[in-house]
Write a structure and sequence with these properties.
mainly alpha, 60% helix
Length: 65
């Protein structure tokens, strides 16, 4: 990665980059999509955390998943 990519672009996951057609954080940065992609990344992380919490939550007696 070149020094040109900002901190937002460096924090993007490969999953988010691929879903938006970028191979590298540098490419996302050069396309000036850092902030928009970081918002998507933050939402993806929050959603994953919420799903993990639901999966780990105790179930009421008699309820099955």
């Amino acid at each position: 990665m070149t020094a040109a990519a900002c901190a937002l672009a460096r924090g993007l996951s490969p999953e988010t980059l691929a879903r938006h057609g970028f191979r590298t954080p540098d490419a996302a940065h050069q396309a000036a999509r850092c902030a928009a992609l970081w918002a998507t990344e933050s939402r993806r992380r929050a959603d994953r955390t919420a799903l993990d919490s639901l999966a780990d939550a105790p179930r009421p007696q008699g309820e099955t998943r």
